[in-house]
Design brief:
single chain, 20 helices, mainly alpha
Amino acid sequence: MDDLILKLQEMSMMNEESQLIIESLEIVKEELSSQKDLLVKELKFSQEKLLDEEKHRKSLEFEIVKLNKLLSDNRVAFEAEMSKGRGNHTKPSFGLEFASNLSKPSKPRESALGQKATIAKIFEEVGLSKILSLLKSEDLDVQTHAVKVVANLAAEDLNQQRIVEEGGLDALLLLLESCKDEMIQRLTAGAIANLAMNGLNQDLIICKGGARLLANMSSQSDDPQTLRMVAGAIANLCGNERLHLLLKEDGGIKALLAMGRSMHINVISQVARGIANFAKCESRSINLGHWNGRSLLIEDGALNWLVANCSVYADSTRHHMELALCHLAQNEENALDVIQSGGIKELLRISKESSREDICKLAKKALKSNSAFLVELQQS
């Protein structure tokens, strides 16, 4: 009986242990079942997300095709219309060609009308908010086409405020900072250059660090088209005297002069335009009594660059340089620098040889109004 009782106790203990094991396995089973349900839900969610992304990708592709077709159709129609009235004359570039008006050249009336019609149709067919949303696409082709369209839209004054209000400037600056694709960088710089034709936009671009980003890009690229866009953007910012100190602090002037060492005339032209814009605004600010002192341009070496290149390039570029030198020479605080750099010799040449009468008069005025220049001329 004792043996039976002992065995019964052992069996009872084993039964309890088995029961505990069963309960533990039940808990594990429930956990595994719960994990299975969760994995099934996650799989279903991933499948739905994949389908949504596929639909979104196809939608983006459709939008890009629509944009390209729209621009292409309007280009063909515009050129056909232009050819009717111009016969075999050389056709002007299409009104919406990317960043074609960095310096706001004059356009034929037909070109302006064709451009406005195309822009109006883009807004009607696609909508600006949709175009701007494409700037955030992970597809480089989609981004490239979207930035090109935004740059073309920004070339029209009427669209610039809408682009900024709907977050276009922020999106462009983010692209400028984060994207490494040179094509997109070039297009983005061109879009910012067009937006920088507006005074309020210039303030925003500087405050949001745009000048610093442009300056950084200029040192990272040797592509002449990219440098032309960057130089054009900085040149437009130079036309706002309120921003001169900030532009200088952000490296804008140094970047402009560094691009001035480029061997490409289109880049040099934008650099010269920027320095002329800066010098003209600075001169006006001094005349109005808003500022005085040695020119900020001289501190970064612009004067020596002007003197060295003032008679080298073709008329349009040379005129920018001549104008900049004349304005720098009007500031009496710059007199010693002008003399030491050989600027008086260039001013004399400009006063006699410049093909623009207003620049000739400006050079003569600068020479006659500064006593230090008169002394130097008498001694030479």
